[in-house]
Every structure is written in C-alpha cells, then in structure tokens.
Amino acid sequence: MSILITGGTGSLGAYLTKALLKEGLGDHLVLFDYRPDYERVAEFAGRVEIVSGNIADWPDVLRTIKEYKVRKIFHLAALLFTESMERPYAGFKINLEGTVNLLEAARMYSVEKVIFASTIATYGPGLPEPVKEGAPQVPESLYGIAKLAGELWGLYYHRQYGIDFRALRFARIVNAGRSGFGTALFPSSLIEDAVLGRRHEVNVPGDYRVPITYIKDAARALVMLYKASDVKRRIYNINGILPSAGEIVDSVKAHIPDAPVNFAKNTEAPPLPMPLSYDDTRASEEFGWGMKYDLDAMIDDFIQEVQKKHGIGRER
Ligand SMILES: NC(=O)c1ccc[n+]([C@@H]2O[C@H](COP(=O)([O-])OP(=O)(O)OC[C@H]3O[C@@H](n4cnc5c(N)ncnc54)[C@H](O)[C@@H]3O)[C@@H](O)[C@H]2O)c1
After folding, report:
1. pLDDT recorded at residue 312
2. Which residues contact 223 (CB under 8 A, 6 or more apart)?
3. Of 96, 177, 199, 303, which residue is least crowded by CB atoms under 10 Å?
4. What is the pLDDT of residues 253-278, one digit of tens each?
5. Spatial CA neighbour of 28 closest among 15, 42, 12, 17
6. Å from CA of 76 to ligand 1 middle
7. Residue numbers of the chain with a pLDDT score lower than 70
8. Which residues pair with residue 237 across a beta bridge?
9. pLDDT, tens digit, for every residue of 244-253?
10. Hey, is 240 helix, strand or coil?
11. Residue nearest ligand 1's atom 37 by CA
12. Rounded to the nearest whole angstrom, what is the distance from the C-alpha of residue 117 to the centroid of ligand 1?
C-alpha cells in the first residue's frame, strides 16, 4: 500500500516528501517523475521509491498504480504556466490528459484519496478581491484552463465513484533551485543569485507585485489537507503574500547588504491574467490552515536553504 507523488522529484514534490517523512506518513512513498531529479531527492535515498514515467502515458500510469498498490495520490506533475504557454499541446497532454489518466487509474484500482495541486490561475482577471472559492472561474491561460478541468474532473470522480478528491489553489511558489524561464522565476532566482553572489538584474519594475507562497508553507498545506479527517468543500484557496519587487529586494539586502542585485532599466510589468489576493478562510476553517512564512521569514529561511545546499557559512 503506497502513497504516490506524481512530479515527486520536482520542487514541491521534494518538500512534500520531506514533510510526509517528518510526519511519519511516508512509509511507502513512490516518487513518479518523467525526468527524475535524483540529486534533489538524494537525502531520501533508501526511504522512497523513484519511478521514471510519464503521466500522459496511460500504460506508465496504470502499471505504477497497480504495481505499487497505490492507495493515496498527491498529483503534482504538471507543465507550469509559462511552459504550457510555450508548448500548448504538451500542456494539454500533461496537465489535462495526464490528470484524467491518473483519476481513471485511481478509479480502476480503488485509490482512496487524490490530492491535486491546482492554482489561482484557474481564476480569470476582473474579480472582486480577495477572491473566494465560489467566484466564477474563467481562466485566460491554457495552464489555468487545464487545471480547472482537472478540478472539475476530480470533483466528478468524487461524486460518481467516491474517490476522496481534494485540491489546493496555490499562488506562485517560491524556492531555491527552481528552473524555468522568464518572469515566472521571479523572485526565486533573484534571492538565490543574491545568496550565491551572482549578479542579478531584476526584470520587473520595482512596484510589480505577484502573490507568492514559500514552498515550505505550500508543502505544509498539502499535508494538512491530506490529514484532515473530513472536508466539506474539497477545493481551497491558499493565499500568498503580496510584496512589491522593491520590497523583496530591500528585504534581501537587509540580509545580504552587498548582494549584486539591481533593477533593469525600462522594464514593463508583465500582465498577470488573474487577481492578486485570495480569501483562504475556508482552508483555515476546515483544516486549520495558516501561513507561517511572511516575507522576512521566507527570505531568511530561503537564504539558509541555499547556504546549506552549497555548503556556504552564514555571513552577516
Ligand atoms: N510553482 C508554482 O508557482 C506553482 C503554483 C501553483 C500551483 N503549482 C502546481 O504545483 C505542482 C508542483 O509544481 P512545482 O513548482 O513543484 O513544479 P516543478 O516543475 O518543480 O515540478 C513538476 C514536476 O513534474 C514533473 N513532470 C512534468 N510533466 C510530467 C509528466 N508528464 N509525467 C511525470 N512527471 C512530470 C517534472 O519533471 C517536475 O519534476 C504543479 O502541479 C503545479 O502546477 C505550482
């Protein structure tokens, strides 16, 4: 009887694995990933199973769920926002067909619980803020469209087949070691570069804001939702904090005064096709959710994580 984490060697997958092991919930963890990042999960060697496979490939999904006698699933594998925009057909195969594959295999093999990493990109722009879960969802991005379909598919499989489907709508997740491109890496790459003494030109204006959540809070929210004995509404916002780019740089420089970070000239704020603030009272009421990392705590912990990873002593 195993717990499967799709995208298990990705950023959130690795932090979730750590959180589950810490809680004593990780006796049989299977990390499923189509490009397993063995280094990222090296610290769990011998305690988890790593399976290379593609959620868009039906036989891969079926074989894994059957072979490992999977009973619970955290479904995190996805192409993220920008990459789905660049590769729309791959976005469909992975984010939509992959989710349907997983739910269907879960139905066939009597998986009890599926926890889905959804996103605030399932909302479109122009909604009254803070946005509540019941607000109309008319996403403009392909990423948001596929994730919304995944939510609806999951709710259907709950109603029709009794799978305990639950989901969280996350804001942008911040952590070290994030790969990708464009402004989607903001502010993760800026903080990491600052710690490593790498020159970094911030490619958004100083007053640019995007809601962000520290990865440890995101992983903790998934575990809290997983552990909740009963949930009423199944899908929950996890609100982020909303510092400006200038405030983030100030906070980084308060920790690392000589960080070689500056703003690029004449940048324009990239359009954000979704609102900025979200009401997550529902998550607080139903499973006790509350954010732990404000901006300063996030930056402090982020710096320590990068230093640990690179064996750097802490200088202040
Ligand atoms: N990063 C964010 O800002 C953010 C925000 C909201 C929601 N989410 C959601 O959280 C989840 C985890 O995101 P993350 O930040 O860890 O991203 P990530 O890119 O670090 O991890 C995703 C993992 O999924 C794997 N993957 C991709 N396609 C796959 C496929 N076809 N089959 C198997 N594995 C595949 C990748 O190899 C990667 O390891 C995703 O579902 C994402 O949509 C992320």
Report:
1. 86
2. 16, 19, 20, 23, 25
3. 199
4. 999 999 999 999 999 988 888 999 99
5. 17
6. 5
7. 314-316
8. 169
9. 999 999 999 9
10. coil
11. 35
12. 9
Q: What burial letters (b/e) apply to 261-291, b meaning 16+ CB within 10 Å?
A: bebeeebeebebbbbbbbbbebbeebbebeb
Alpha carbon 193 to its chain's center: 21
Ligand 1 contact, 151 CB (< 6 A): no
Of residues 112, 228, 128, the one with CA closest to residue 168: 228
> How many residues are there in the chain?
316
The predicted pLDDT at position 150 comes to 98
**pLDDT of res. 184:** 80
Looking at residue 27, what is its pLDDT? 85
Decide: 138 and 121 in contact? Cβ < 8 Å: no
Please state, in angstroms and as integers, the Cα–Cα distance from residue 253 to each residue in 82, 189, 201, 205, 297, following that order: 28, 15, 14, 17, 14
CB of 56 closer than 6 angstroms to any ligand 1 atom: yes
Structure confidence at residue 302 (pLDDT): 96
The correct answer on CATH 3.40.640.10 for the domain covering 2-173+214-238 is no
CA distance 294 to 243: 10
Question: Which position has the token pair 């979730």?
Answer: 16
174-211+241-272+293-310 CATH, one of 3.40.50, 2.40.128, 1.20.58, 3.90.25? 3.90.25
103 lines ligand 1 (CB under 6 A): no
Q: Cα–Cα distances in Å, from 50 out to 45, 59, 100?
A: 9, 17, 22
Q: Whole-model pTM?
A: 0.97
Instruction: Locate the domains of the chain by residue range.
Output: 2-173+214-238, 174-211+241-272+293-310
- pLDDT number for residue 314: 56
Nearest to 210 by CA among 226, 234, 190, 224: 190
- Residues 301, 314: contact at Cβ < 8 Å? no
